Amino acid sequence: MNQEHISRQFDADLEGLRTRVLAMGGLVEQQLIRAMQGLKSGDMAQIEQVIATDRQVNRHEVELDEACNNVIARRQPAAVDLRMIMTVVKTITDLERIGDEAKKIAKMARDIHRGDTRVVPRVDLDPPAEIAVAMLRKALDAFARLDVNASAEVVRQDREVDSAYKAAARQLITFMMEDPRTISSSLDLLFVARSIERIGDHAKNISEYVVYLVKGRDVRHIGLEAMEQEVARPLGNP
Amino acid sequence: MNQEHISRQFDADLEGLRTRVLAMGGLVEQQLIRAMQGLKSGDMAQIEQVIATDRQVNRHEVELDEACNNVIARRQPAAVDLRMIMTVVKTITDLERIGDEAKKIAKMARDIHRGDTRVVPRVDLDPPAEIAVAMLRKALDAFARLDVNASAEVVRQDREVDSAYKAAARQLITFMMEDPRTISSSLDLLFVARSIERIGDHAKNISEYVVYLVKGRDVRHIGLEAMEQEVARPLGNP
């Protein structure tokens, strides 16, 4: 094999990894949407399907991890190629955990709809869930198009999902205090709200890895303002 | 530089990564212990210190990630050496998230002890916290000594921490139902209990990476029994 051939093979490897991450991301997004639908409708078949499909999410993670290790061992990547692979390794961990949260939401939905005598408070969790889905989609988009501006938007949206979570939590606590019969189902909904908020955190993590991939600078833990500055900085200008 | 020299340098690199992971693990363990002490004592100086020290945990993560990338780019590791580095990359993500949970516990402790009129239920969270600390310690030990039997013990203990969490949650829900004035502080304690349970999950993740490192097989998501079989299997015997 000549050098050019090896290099084309390597590009195909990297492209393969990227495609599989996006497929995993699509599956995880679908899990989250279906879990929220199940929570609303009480459709037990759908709820059970979300719970069962989590195995598929896990399989994606394990297979992608192995594929990343193989590419590193065979191709000995450096610089941006290595950053791409490390971004994949980290992204799939967060996607798997979003999958776990979707499964937890489905389990809460099962608990809520199975108890026929329970008093369920009317608190709408769609607003935070819609922000979380939008964040996940945009983070995957940022990864697909190497778009650091989309990354910055995801980080900004994390504040929105946090405040939508807090609003829902306050409502739920009010319900519990006014009618102790709602405590049990309010708690289930509170944990759903918490899962949604965590999904936002994971989407934020993914979008931060994309900045690292494109810019070569680790922007975790530095705060929104510093990250926005980094995103605005022209490439190759330290 | 001759081959032997390079190889010794490489060993020193790997040893350096291992040592730094253990230092980060020690810091995270200390954070968890101090957060739980703060919850009990209400010592505000200690609580604030835990919250402030989370930055140090984050710094460890960022620096270790960078060090791993440098070692991969310079040494082009394969087989067990590459597995070691990938184990470090994954382990530090879980350690950082344990650090986040410790910080959340400290924030809950601050909320609970700041509100002087609040009725706080007497539910002891030391039992689950002690299991979680023991799991974290054992997972770090498994990593330090490449001890897959210790890994299996951690996975077994995850069941204990889950049931200690559930017992605490049941008690807290009873308090809330009997005295709605306790709802607010019971919820804070419930979230602390939930953080402890998650710390157990992270310790379990770390111990699973050690099995992967030593045995070359990914044992995540396969269940306790299958993992125990894998741990019992002699090395090099597929």
Automatic annotation (TrEMBL), chains A, B:
Residues 22-108, 129-210 form the PhoU domain. Gene3D superfamilies: Phosphate transport system protein phou homolog 2, domain 2. GO terms for cellular component: cytoplasm. It is found in: Cytoplasm. GO terms for biological process: intracellular phosphate ion homeostasis; negative regulation of phosphate metabolic process; phosphate ion transport. InterPro entries: PhoU (IPR028366), PhoU-like_sf (IPR038078), PhoU_dom (IPR026022). Keywords: Cytoplasm, Phosphate transport, Transport. Belongs to the PhoU family. Plays a role in the regulation of phosphate uptake. Homodimer. This is Phosphate-specific transport system accessory protein PhoU. It comes from Sulfuritalea hydrogenivorans sk43H. The lineage of its organism: Bacteria, Pseudomonadati, Pseudomonadota, Betaproteobacteria, Nitrosomonadales.
